[in-house]
Design goal:
By secondary structure, the chain is an alpha+beta fold. The protein has a single domain, classed as Type VI secretion system, lipoprotein SciN (Immunoglobulin-like, Sandwich), CATH 2.60.40. The strands form two sheets. Strands 4-1-7-8 form a four-stranded mixed beta sheet, with no helix packed on it. It is globular and about 50 Å long.
Length: 195
């Protein structure tokens, strides 16, 4: 018979193991998307939806631990503090050069299906990161508007990081009507928190 004390010890051991694996020492990000994305660019903007091909989308995964914020002062890193950050993709990519010390992975997502595929998997590893407390992973997408400008789309935010112990998932979409400040372009969190 398993006692309550024994059950609590086992549960705590599981939680510790889960948290230990939930940082950026080795994570997987699965990206799903609409058939055509990043469609507000100058090539696609005036075309009917059926003729839009979508442009390649630049995506940046950013990992920040409490140690990063402790050393940040009042610069761009401090602006990414998860409790107060309002930084959009437009602001992030404008300031990307001054964020060179941040742990990040940058990659491209194609604008349309290739061979019928609409899922992409990326793996990232940032050794030495201790994720606890107010740690955060951001996923910024560089959607481009009809005048070549970066659209101010909110990033996906995984915070605190240790609430997400499995594969991270996001979905990228584009509204046919291309409405509003974001022209219907969006990236959203599809992951489940385990705590």
């Amino acid at each position: 018979m398993i006692t309550t004390k024994r059950r609590n010890v086992v549960r705590m051991a599981w939680i510790i193991a889960a948290v230990a694996s939930a940082g950026c020492s080795g994570r997987t990000l699965v990206i799903t998307k609409d058939p055509v994305i990043n469609t507000a660019n100058r090539i696609d903007f005036n075309k009917p939806p059926a003729e839009r091909r979508g442009e390649t989308l630049k995506v940046a995964v950013i990992c920040l631990g409490e140690d990063d914020f402790a050393k940040a002062g009042t610069g761009p890193i401090a602006e990414l503090a998860p409790a107060t950050s309002t930084m959009t993709s437009k602001e992030f990519f404008e300031k990307e050069g001054s964020l060179s010390s941040v742990s990040k992975k940058v990659f491209d997502v194609v604008g349309a299906k290739i061979d019928g595929k609409d899922t992409q998997t990326e793996r990232f590893k940032f050794p030495g990161k201790l994720f606890k407390g107010n740690s955060v992973i951001y996923v910024f997408a560089k959607f481009v508007g009809p005048n070549g400008e970066v659209i101010p789309v909110k990033p996906v935010k995984f915070n605190p990081v240790w609430h997400y112990t499995g594969t991270l998932k996001v979905h990228i979409s584009a509204n046919e009507k291309l409405e509003g400040d974001t022209y219907g372009q969006n990236i959203e969190n599809k992951s489940k928190e385990v705590f």
